[in-house]
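To: structure subgroup
Subject: Chain for Friday's discussion

All,

I'm putting the inputs and outputs inline so they're searchable in the archive.
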Amino acid sequence: MRLTTKGRYAVTAMLDLALHHDQGPIRLAGISDRQGISLSYLEQLFAQLRRQDLVKSVRGPGGGYHLGRHAGAISVAEVIAAVNEDTDTTRCGGSGDCQEGETCLTHHLWMDLSDQVREFLQNISLGDLVQRQDIRRVSQKQERRTKDQERKVDQILASNL
């Protein structure tokens, strides 16, 4: 199994959204700044997440995104699946034709691992992650860094006036 950047970024962005849900609709630019994910990439991911009803968009000046359901009702596995990522660890994609059309010696081992990975990710919700103190500390650090950067930009702009 190889979880690509697409799956990792989708989970990261959704977790950021869950962590900031109390701030109203969250702009993708804010997620981009905090998480270091390009805005255009986030737009692509959120189009897929929106199609799966994992996020809802709010238009207008105060617009942005919010979770489509309560954070506790969205599993990490759902987020990964919504962006068409796969957690299969077999070479054959689970079809059993790994060795010249036949099942290879380790096929069942890798199938069992795939099942364990899926079950693990299915049993972790965004709400579970939001409750973790280590994740909350990282989020607070990101908030401070982003506010410091905004303050510096404001100072530069003010000094140029």
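Points worth raising on Friday:
Strands lie at 55-58, 64-67.
The mean pLDDT is 91.

D.
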